[in-house]
Specification:
The complex is a heterodimer. Chain A is of the alpha+beta class. Chain A is 30% helix and 17% strand. Chain A has 22 helices and 25 strands. In chain A, strands 12, 15, 16, 17, 22, 23, 24 and 25 form an 8-stranded mixed beta sheet that branches. Chain A has a 5-stranded antiparallel beta sheet with strand order 5-4-6-8-7, covered by helices on one side. In chain A, helix 12 packs antiparallel against helix 14 and helix 19 runs antiparallel to helix 20. Chain B folds into 2 domains: 75 residues, no CATH class; 216 residues, MetI-like fold, CATH 1.10.3720. Chain B is built from 14 helices and no strands. In chain B, helix 7 packs across helix 9 and helix 13 runs antiparallel to helix 14. Helix content of chain B is 71%, strand content 0%. Chain B starts with a helix and ends in a 7-residue tail after the last helix. By secondary structure, chain B is an all-alpha fold. The chains are: A alpha+beta, B mainly alpha. Chains A and B meet through helix 5, helix 9, helix 16 and helix 22 of A and helix 2, helix 3, helix 6, helix 8 and helix 12 of B.
């Protein structure tokens, strides 16, 4: 009977296991609402919370992901063409500069640059562009605004933007662009580029001073000399002298329009207490608008129903057609209805969710690099079978940025003009094996740098003619090869430090490496590697690690000796890299971006010529000369150009990496049905191990219960017997 | 008792002033107002005039403790310490240095932390007490020895290991729940299961050992021997007498942590994508947002002190012999 009962129980258990394991339906681990399973929604993650989405303040890549989709400056970069090409976005055309003399008389286009006192950019915007729906525009039938000049009582129950039920829109006008330029100079806004633009936009600093005198002024009432509204759809920006790179700034959100209604709405007292501000609820004309702003959990952008007509480019580079990048040519943008960005601070869960299909694209962290990528015998990256099995594709692109080991040229040992210091710097540059650094610390995600200009930027030279002849040579196999350590030691000897001993003092040479501590385990490995590189020459390296703000202060005060630093391009022009060594851009004396404080009259003269030239042979020639001077003087050891690896799921249409433009989400498209099918097939719950665990626990408890039962029912011993 | 509570609450004032002073001094030994401004403005093209504007607009243009430009009491009150730190006594946390309202953020972020902390605490207590009672019941047997060994092993393993293993096995291999993420309301259930399971398992070792010690201590007392001598079943002795008296240290130990539960857990929330308060202070320190740091330290101090007061009250409830005077 017991046997029969046991077999019945076993059968029931087995049936339950089979039932549980056999059930096929929607995944249980889907982190998104079931209703969105096959919706046209793109899922991505972010790891750094945006601080502000105000276009006058935002200057971080983490924020540009959002601001670039929402705000529309007059210009943008062509999605497919390389080198990066400026095209109109809300403008009707890319503006041509108009040159003026001191009397504001127009000069011919081919006038000598030194005669140009002012340059005017007249920008015509397209009529008929409307803002996203927003409460700031909502009007009553009598024409007054619903939500301007509200009382404290009216605002008391407004906890989010959704609490304002009425929305409206209005047409984009030239005034809005001028309004934003004024905001850039407004001391209440504190735009990070105010100081920089103050050098160029006419009357910019005076405007700032004027606003400081009158703190609560309506910006529309105060004229800014460097801007002028010509008509409803035309405005002018007047800049001092000649600065051809200014056009690139017109493709950044700093120059996007902000309607005056935004300030009228958001500056009402009380709204800031509920975090309702332009910094968190932007108002734009872009393809997307921010629906949910919770930087601690999720940022959601939805399609702007008022978005103007814009179409996928009809042409690109050779190879784009074959790569499937022109299949949507001529189709109206954007393609995706909604973007959901989820905060993932840790790389492991982010990676696992990508493998489960819950993120559409993913970068690769060091933790998961080996799971995703293997380096073949030729040193090229390729995806692992695990990734290949899921039809995930890999795209690599070199970022327009550089990382370098800088020498403080104001330092008495490694800096200044002496031949001794120059040879010491060259010896260090020759000994530093950045190939090894890229392999160890970047998993190969970097390109060995030869100079300040990275690939993809005009002026960069590839191959033999692009190598730094002081540090590298071109070997018989047509490959770049670092000069030998003996040559580095010889240079060190010539500098008066044979085997790392200072001949003048007969003491070991001690150098200081100033670095900001990231507080990770990798830091110690990096410091050990740095010491090892310097030890090859017999130089003792002292690591002076400090927090970021102290490190920056050292750079500003010229107290750093050797430091690792980097630069990410603002725009795709060599001027934006070569200015890193331009004397009048020195950090200590002028507060500029030249962190090494390098100053060379010849270099500076060439820089002034180069920055005003259009890309072409003459400009390339000057750039070559400038780079050669930098190689000779070696104010920095050019380390590497960072390389991005991006994995893309099979349901995402081919995309082209664009390292300069950020407004590229409108070009993305996905196949939501394919995604839903694959997610379902990849994520079926597996229940039998859980059942086994429960059975094991029950099996473990049985003897305990038995023991308890025996103990409770054992006969009492009579010790007197 | 009311007089006692008022007295304890008044003690809070010097404690809060001291903690505020210490936080303020430590923060400004390491950071200057300019550092805070530059951290908020970013690293590129920053002009000194913009830094100055930022300091002026955010009220960081004042001296730390003594204002030479003012006379009388204003020399002490028109300072960063008074304007930024002592103002917290009005419970006006103000806006963060990045411009967000701190009270609003705290009120939004405390709920996800509570979603995780409360179930973890309650289920953890039940599991640990049950397991500890089992070990106490089988004291000095192989069940007890292997249970203690199991607890020591569980205690020796890093909490991070439980999180990563839990995400790997339950979220990735078995695909039973989302690996990370959060939704409010009833949808929170599927996101909360994994962190709660991990939190409970991670706490079994230490919790069980502590409760086992408490139970064993009670079981050695005379009244238990009397109960057994009366012929009570062991289960009745355990549940009726031992558990009841062991609840005094258990309840007081739990009550002290209740107010701080909503402050969340840094690692847990980071890995599971819970938008709670766990990382609020750490993120603020990293981003050099002094406004958040000072507000959270102030809040943490108050909650800790309230926890201690609640413990005292709990003593009087669970042990009638205790009187607060």
């Amino acid at each position: 009977m017991a046997r029969k009962h046991l077999s019945k129980t076993t059968l029931l258990t087995l049936a339950a296991i089979l039932l549980l394991t056999a059930c096929k339906g929607k995944p249980w681990n889907d982190p998104y609402p079931a209703a969105d399973a096959d919706a046209n929604v793109y899922y991505a993650s972010f790891s750094e919370q945006p601080k502000t989405l105000d276009p006058a303040q935002s200057y971080s890549v983490d924020e540009a992901v959002f601001t670039a989709q929402i705000y529309e400056p007059p210009l943008q970069y062509h999605y497919l063409k390389r080198p990066y090409t400026l095209i109109p976005l809300t403008a009707t055309e890319v503006p041509k500069p108009i040159f003026l003399d001191a009397n504001d008389e127009e000069l011919p286009a081919d006038t000598a640059k030194k005669n140009i006192v002012r340059t005017v950019y007249e920008i015509h915007i397209q009529p008929g562009i409307n803002y996203q729906p927003h409460p700031a525009f909502a009007k009553k039938p009598d024409g007054s605004y619903y939500y301007h000049n509200l009382s404290a009582a009216d605002l008391a129950d407004k906890k989010s933007l959704a609490d304002f039920t009425q929305t409206g829109t209005r047409e984009l006008v030239a005034d809005d662009y001028v309004y934003e330029i004024k905001r850039l100079a407004d001391p209440r806004v504190q735009s990070p580029i105010f100081g920089f633009l103050g050098k160029y936009i006419q009357g910019f600093t005076d405007f700032n001073a004027q606003l400081k005198q009158n703190n609560n002024v309506d910006l529309r009432q105060v004229p800014l000399q460097g801007t002028q509204v010509v008509d409803k759809y035309t405005y002018k920006i007047i800049i001092n002298g000649y600065y051809p790179q200014f056009l690139y700034w017109l493709a950044m959100p700093f120059f996007a329009p902000v309607p005056w209604e935004a300030d009228a709405f958001y500056q009402q007292p009380g709204l800031a207490n509920s975090n309702i501000s332009l910094a968190w609820y932007p108002i734009g004309t872009g393809a997307y608008m921010l629906e949910e702003n919770n930087p601690n959990r999720q940022m959601v952008m939805t399609r702007n129903p008022n978005y103007h007509k814009e179409y996928y480019p009809m042409e690109g580079e050779p190879g784009d057609l074959k790569a499937g990048l022109l299949t949507k040519a001529g189709q109206q943008l954007p393609f995706i209805d909604k973007f959901v960005f989820t905060l993932e601070k840790e790389s492991i869960p982010r990676w696992n969710k990508f493998l489960q299909g819950y993120y559409d694209q993913s970068a690769i962290s060091s933790d998961s690099f080996d799971q995703a990528i293997k380096i073949d015998s030729a040193g090229s990256p390729e995806i692992t079978p695990l990734i290949k099995a899921r039809n995930i594709s890999l795209q690599t692109s070199v970022s327009p940025g550089n990382y370098y080991l800088g020498f403080n040229m104001l330092d008495s040992i490694v800096g200044r003009d002496s031949e001794r210091a120059r040879k010491l710097r060259l010896a260090i540059a020759t000994a530093m094996n950045y190939d090894e650094y890229i392999a160890i610390f970047l998993n190969g995600r970097g390109v060995l740098a030869q100079g300040p200009i990275p690939p993809g930027i005009f002026g960069y030279r590839e191959g033999k003619e692009g190598i730094n002849p002081f540090v590298y040579e071109w070997n018989n196999n047509n490959q770049i090869q670092r000069k030998s350590l003996d040559e580095a030691k010889q240079l060190l000897k010539e500098a008066g430090y044979p085997n790392g001993r200072d001949l003048t003092t007969d003491e070991a040479l001690l150098l200081n490496f100033d670095v900001m501590s990231g507080g990770t385990a990798d830091d110690q490995a990096f410091y050990s590697w740095m010491r090892k590189e310097f030890n090859q020459l017999g130089i003792q390296l002292q690591i002076r690690d400090t927090q970021y703000s102290r490190f920056q202060e050292k750079l500003r005060n010229g107290q750093a000796q050797i430091f690792m630093w980097g630069w990410q391009a603002d725009y795709p022009d060599p001027e934006n890299f070569l200015f890193l060594l331009y004397g009048p851009n020195g950090e200590v004396k002028y507060g500029g971006e030249n962190a090494t404080n390098y100053q060379n009259d010849q270099y500076d003269a060439l820089f002034k010529k180069m920055r005003n030239l259009p890309n072409g042979e003459a400009r390339q020639h000057i750039i070559d000369q400038m780079v050669a001077i930098a190689w000779h003087d070696s104010p920095a050891v050019w380390g590497f150009y960072p390389q991005g690896f991006l994995l893309t799921q099979s349901w995402v249409a081919p995309t082209k990496p664009n390292e300069i433009a950020n407004n590229t989400l409108k070009f993305l498209s996905i196949d939501p049905k394919l995604r839903a099918e694959l997610r379902d097939s990849w994520n079926q719950p597996i229940l039998w191990p859980l059942t086994v665990v429960v059975l094991i626990i029950l099996a473990g408890l049985l003897p305990i219960f038995y023991y308890y039962w025996r103990r409770q029912h054992r006969p009492v011993r009579d010790n007197n017997k | 008792m009311i007089a006692y509570l008022i007295r304890r609450l008044l003690y809070l004032i010097p404690v809060l002033i001291g903690v505020n002073l210490l936080t303020f001094a430590l923060y400004f030994i390491v950071n200057s107002p300019e550092d805070i401004a530059r951290a908020q403005l970013g690293g590129k093209h920053i002009d000194q005039s913009v830094v100055q504007d930022w300091e002026d607009q955010h009220g960081y243009n004042k001296p730390l403790f003594y204002n030479n430009k003012e006379t009388g009491i204003a020399a002490l009150t028109d300072t960063l310490f008074v304007k930024k730190s002592l103002i917290l006594f009005t419970f006006n946390f103000g806006v963060s240095d990045s411009g967000r309202n701190i009270s609003h953020d705290v009120s939004q972020r405390m709920w996800p932390s509570i979603y995780i902390a409360i179930p973890t605490l309650i289920i953890g207590l039940l599991v640990n007490i049950t397991f500890a009672m089992l070990l106490a019941f089988f004291r000095q047997t192989y069940v007890d020895l292997s249970g203690v060994l199991f607890c020591i092993i569980m205690m020796s393993i890093s909490g991070l290991f439980y999180i990563i293993s839990g995400q790997y096995f339950i979220g990735k291999v078995l695909q039973l729940v989302p690996i990370s993420g959060f939704e409010g309301g009833f949808s929170a259930f599927k996101f909360v299961i994994l962190p709660v399971v991990v939190g409970v398992i991670g706490g079994i070792g230490a919790g069980t050992r502590w409760y086992r010690t408490i139970f064993l201590e009670e079981m050695g007392k005379d009244y238990i021997r009397t109960a057994r001598a009366k012929g009570l079943a062991e289960s009745r002795v355990l549940f009726k007498h031992v558990l009841k008296n062991a609840m005094i240290p258990i309840v007081t130990g739990v009550v002290v942590i209740i107010p701080s539960l909503f402050l969340g857990s840094l690692i847990m929330e980071s890995f599971f994508g819970i938008p709670g308060l766990g990382s609020y202070t750490i993120d603020a320190i990293r981003q050099q947002d002094f406004a958040i740091v000072r507000a959270m330290v102030f809040l943490g101090t108050i909650l800790y002190c309230i926890g201690l007061i609640m413990t005292d009250i709990a003593y009087t409830i669970v042990d009638p012999r205790v009187r607060l005077q």
